[in-house]
Amino acid sequence: MIYPLVSELAGDGIPVTVACRVLKLARQPYYRWLENPVSDAEWVQAHRINALHDAHVEDPTFGYRFLGHEAKKAGWSMSRRTAWSLCSQSGILSAAQRRRRGKGTKAGPPVFDDHVQRMFTADVPNRVWFTDITEHRTAEGKLYCCAIKDACGHRVVGYSISDRMPASLAVDALNNAVARRKAEGHDVAGCILHADRGSQFRSRKMGHTLNRHGMVGSMGRVGAAGDNAAMESFWSLLQTNVLNQRRWSTRQELRLAIVVWIERKYHRQRPQDSLGGLTPIEYEDKITTDAAAAA
């Protein structure tokens, strides 16, 4: 806004008429502004930005939709478009934005070496796990799922589902997988967890969690989807059998459908050619039985 400059020039002795003529401004709007320098709209906008900023500080992973929701809780309601516009103007960006493909920001540097080298099979369970994150829209917004798949029997040993995609999404999936395996009497120490270079898998939280469980991190190359083909094939099945089957009204509805499909259909009712026509649960049972017989 240029009206403050007119006031400064007037304070220096330059007549308002002259300043307005030079700056090509009408005088009446200037005098109206002088009576009320901060308009009601500007006052409301400033408070909305403050509310969005406070919510962003509370959780930097929130996008503009969630920030707008939090601002509403604080008493500053606004449309999603307004929230997006104010966040863009103020430089308020989510720390967990979706990874771009193709042009855009480059993926971060790997924090682990590639210990898999596209070897997507293992002779025994808990030697190599693969992990990745997918997303799908519902009428309420996006739902994110992080899953961990065992290279031996293709079983999904752990997963985490949330309406946001912070590092804790991947950490929760890993903790879930470790807890499940330990409850079954398995030792996961030395197991390799292979992922892409997403920020969730490069985070300090993930590194600390891997160290705590005695596991080894592994990462593929940038832009090489084939380096994590084991998870890409699983997501393709989930997309075909669940996500694209219908329009999902709520996140809870989609969450339940994903869990039911993994635990019932994928694990127990869907035989796989690569497992000799067995389901993941049947194959793991066979591996365990054979190992016990050999011992």
TrEMBL record:
UniProt cross-references to InterPro entries, sorted A to Z: Integrase_cat-core (IPR001584), RNaseH-like_sf (IPR012337), RNaseH_sf (IPR036397), Transpos_IS3 (IPR048020), Transposase_IS3/IS150/IS904 (IPR050900)
Residue ranges annotated for the Integrase catalytic domain, each copy included: 121-288
Gene3D superfamilies: Ribonuclease H-like superfamily/Ribonuclease H
PROSITE patterns linked: INTEGRASE
GO BP annotations listed: DNA integration
Protein name (record): IS3 family transposase
Pfam families named in the record: rve (PF00665), rve_2 (PF13333)
Example GO molecular function: nucleic acid binding
PANTHER family cross-referenced by the UniProt entry: TRANSPOSASE INSF FOR INSERTION SEQUENCE IS3B-RELATED, TRANSPOSASE INSO FOR INSERTION SEQUENCE ELEMENT IS911B-RELATED
